Amino acid sequence: MSGTISEEEFLRDISEIAENSDDSTRTEHRWTLVKHDHGVFCKNSSTIEYNNEAIVRHFHVTYSQSYGVPVLWFNFYRRDGSSLHLDDIVATVRADFRSAIESDLIRSISQNEHPYLGIMFYHIHPCRTHLVMRDIRSSNYVLSWLSIFGSPLRLSLPSKMFQHTRRSESADIKNCLLISSRIYTTLGTQWMDQRGSDKCGQPNFPLTPFRHI
């Protein structure tokens, strides 16, 4: 399997995610579609409390025609509208999980102009997304991809979203957990440092030091 999807499949998947999250009572679980002159993307917003300060998080999912995969864009804001620097964003997760992000993801994250909004957003570069996703067999590629690439940023995805998809997702969830265990190897040793290391530590998803408001 190539690990890529067509734009048609992407639109189908994000439409399904938005539909299945529409009845959620928790705002951090809701995804909505945004129609733009140049295409459609999916967005999620939530407010968390970190160090006694309210932080607004925006996650957007767009499609890369160049790479044939989704792209995760994100910005975190304070109540006064000022945006958090990447170092501050990384600081919103616990120290042990933070070290994994800094060593494996930090150099794959860059700031660029949002393809639809024209403002600066952070994003995880999609150049090797297909390497992570090629072993996934899922009825909703984007949902499985989100469960992997959103984890380091503590993006919340309730298990019931998997249960709402077109067929049983039990195998998909197991696949995602398995693939998540490789994300540090794939994103770290292949993307960034190119040292050829065989390290493959089991990921630890601890409780974060913030809470949703």
The helicity comes to: 25-40%
CATH topology: Yope Regulator, Chain: A
Low-confidence stretches: 184-210
The rounded Rg comes to: 16 Å
Strand fraction equals 15-25%
Largest sheet: 7 strands, antiparallel
CATH architecture: 2-Layer Sandwich
Number of domain units: 1
Tell me the distance between the termini.
40 Å
β-strand number: 7
Order of helices and strands: HEEEEHHEEHHHHHE
GO cellular component, one term: cytosol
Organism: Parascaris univalens
GO molecular function: Atg12 conjugating enzyme activity
Pfam families: Autophagy_act_C
Description:
One of its GO terms (cellular component) is cytosol. This is Ubiquitin-like-conjugating enzyme ATG10. InterPro entries: Atg3/Atg10. The chain is 33% helix and 24% strand. The protein has 213 residues and is α+β, with helices and mostly antiparallel strands. The protein has a single domain, classed as 2-Layer Sandwich (Yope Regulator, Chain: A). A hairpin with a 4-residue loop joins β3 and β4 (69-78). α5 packs parallel to α7. It is globular.
